[in-house]
Amino acid sequence: ADLSTSTDREIKKDGNRLKRLLLTDDEWELLDQLVDLLMPFEEATREFSGNSYITLSRVIPIIKEMIFDLATEVPSNNDDFLNEDTIFGSEALEIQQTDFDDDEVISNITKKKISIKNPLNTVGILEKIKQNIYNALIYYWDIPNDLGLMAALLDPRYKNLDFLDDDEKQRIVQKLRSELDGVKTSTSEPLNNPSTPLNAESSMRSHKEYRQRWQMKNKRGDKSYPNTPII
């Protein structure tokens, strides 16, 4: 039964209050759009969290792909992407006011009171969220880590480095070659303190002298030497 049409006054009052707290159609539509927007980030998080396969080579290509996708959906602006104050600036969301008494909750993030009965004006919200995500990606990934780029270069799936310009590609290729040359050089260098090789001639001479002394003692009947067989 519909609470708002109940003949009981208190039940009807609760029904009307509940109806005011329910999400509007526009808010549900915004949530659906946010799910679609954030799905690639959820998939990327799972991909980067793998512990049974190499993930380093995938980090930069996947993030670059998300940046490129968002770049086609957000307007170009003159934001300073290296300035945290301008990138993460926030604007107050517009709330449609009603004549009812406020029902408020405390935000876990801002610790401020939020009215949960007043519907959100969803116009332009999705675009603002896209812009903020794009700005954050540029802020944190404007200069990719060389180690991640070299890992991508060694991955057959990304070895063409299509997400970089030609100059950056050549720089990473040369850097990887330099790293490999350094490894080859370090492995080919002789040891600083090589062990002294065994002198075979000296060893044979000592054994021959020992054998001669043993034979001489044995002929004289010297019992100080045990009957050790001659080697």
Give the topology, please.
Layout: H1 9-21, H2 25-48, H3 56-71, H4 84-87, E1 104-106, E2 113-115, H5 125-141, H6 146-154, H7 166-188, H8 200-219
Antiparallel strand pairs: 1-2
Helix pairs in contact: 2-3, 3-5, 3-6, 6-7
Give an account of the 3D structure:
With 231 residues, the protein is an all-alpha fold. Among the domains are: 3-90 and 125-143, no CATH class; 202-231. Helix content is 55%, strand content 3%. The chain has helices at 9-21, 25-48, 56-71, 84-87, 125-141, 146-154, 166-188, 200-219; strands at 104-106, 113-115. It has a two-stranded antiparallel sheet. Helix 3 (56-71) crosses helix 6 (146-154). Residues 92-101 have low confidence and may be disordered.
- With strands numbered from the N-terminus, the spatial order across the biggest sheet is 1-2
Poorly predicted ranges (pLDDT <50, ≥5 residues)?
A: 92-101
Can you count the beta strands?
Answer: 2
Calculate Rg over CA atoms. Answer: 39 Å
What is the overall silhouette? elongated
Mean pLDDT: 76
Question: Which class best fits the helix and strand makeup?
Answer: mainly alpha
* Largest β-sheet summary: 2 strands, antiparallel
Q: Give me the number of helical elements.
A: 8
| Series of H and E elements | HHHHEEHHHH
Termini gap: 109 Å
What fraction strand?
under 5%
Q: Helical amount among residues, as a percent range?
A: 40-55%
Key structural traits:
single chain; 231 residues; two-stranded antiparallel ribbon; hAT-like transposase RNase-H fold domain-containing protein; RNaseH-like_sf
